[in-house]
Amino acid sequence: MAKFEGLLMGMGNPLLDISATVGQDLLDKYEVKLDTAILAEDKHQPLFKELMEKYSPSFIAGGATQNSIRVAQWMLKDKAGQTAFMGCVGNDDYGKTLNECASKDGVLVHYMKDEKTPTGTCAALIKDGERALVTNLDAANNFKPSHLDTDKAKEIIESAKFYYIAGFFLTVSPEALAIVGDHCVANNKVLGLNLSAPFIVEFFGPKVKDALEYADFVFSNESEAEAYGKVNNLGSDLKEIALKICEGPKKNSKRSRTVIFTQGSKSTIVAHDGKVTEYAVEPLAKDKLVDTNGAGDAFVGGFLSKLIQDKPMEECVKAGHWAAKFIIQTSGTTLATKCDYEG
Ligand code: 26A
Hints:
By secondary structure, the protein is α/β, with parallel strands linked by helices. The protein is built from twelve helices and 14 strands. The site of 6N-dimethyladenosine has 22 residues, from strand 2, strand 3, helix 3, strand 8 and helix 11.
């Protein structure tokens, strides 16, 4: 395996998305709402079988953090090998597919392998361009901090300058997040987190609070931001909520925090040093929308691709908007052979 001399490391849940266009009947049957992301309960298990048997789904590499890292690498074009990703997969075909897909995109993949558990899957139910995500974490849930002690992981952690972990990973290993976070604090490196889903904010509150102390960048969409405001009694004004998150406790006092809220086709809110800036989004014609699955991850990927090149905020947001617009015109996080972003 090549030596990692890149800039950006991600750690998260590698998942294979099982994506299909469905009717309201299937959503109702499994009590799943559009625009949500949840962990599968027992009642959702037959859904996976039903999708395979009746819906001819597509299998697409997924997992929120892995999507962002793949997009970041793709946006970096000829600068291959700038990104690395860690997570846990099973010793099976789905795990191999994920490895091949991310490697082909130029990401250095260093998976932990769980011999006894299948690779995680996410049912992506698409209706009218919106999506509902139901996840069986399986092997992804068995990531252990001990993986960070492997020589390859140490090399990646030491070399990288930027780190990104979606909040979804708080359901798996807050300990591993803290190890990476402590490394960032000790070396004044940059860590980005994502609130990921309302259920993370609602049911993992203390873990989110601890993780945020490490965050130099916090990404979220409007529904997660609203949930955060509600749970923490910060009101419902998104700009106020963004400023409050900026001001929250922070372990590395050498950098001030930036908070970024995307709002679909509405303008993106960026809060930093007591100031809020809004960046308009160029809307996509409705007939061009395929599905919104991966839009938020792609925004982060585009944003990070510029951040790690020390570009100004405006350029980071512009690249994020472009990547999100690209991804909502494809099924899940499916990338073109070449990225033609010219920013
Ligand atoms: C812990 N959970 C629920 C999850 C996820 C997840 N990635 C990590 N952890 N639930 C859904 N996803 C991924 O989100 C992407 C879209 O933003 C899906 O795999 C999908 O590719």
